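Could you please review the protein record set out just below?
***
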Amino acid sequence: MSALDRPASALAAERRAAAAPALIAATLRGLARAVVNRRQIGRLRDLTDRGLADIGLMRLDLDFARRAPLQVDPTRRLASVARERAHS
């Protein structure tokens, strides 16, 4: 039996099954990165208000970022807030 004899749906299913481990690994890496970045936000809390202002953030921004769902990288939220503040 050659690849030409298989139905297209079977080939698509095989491709998805082959891609699943890579997708799972990428998801786990993303979760691990989000957890590490949440810890880093905890360290940002140690900065003074002036130190936070120097990098374009406020304490409320840290709380906003930490309230994000676990699978969301909080540093992306912080970067977004800082960018919006810089443009306004």
Summary: The mean pLDDT is 84. Residues 8-87 form one domain. Residues 3 and 10 are 10 Å apart (CA to CA). The chain has one domain: 8-87.
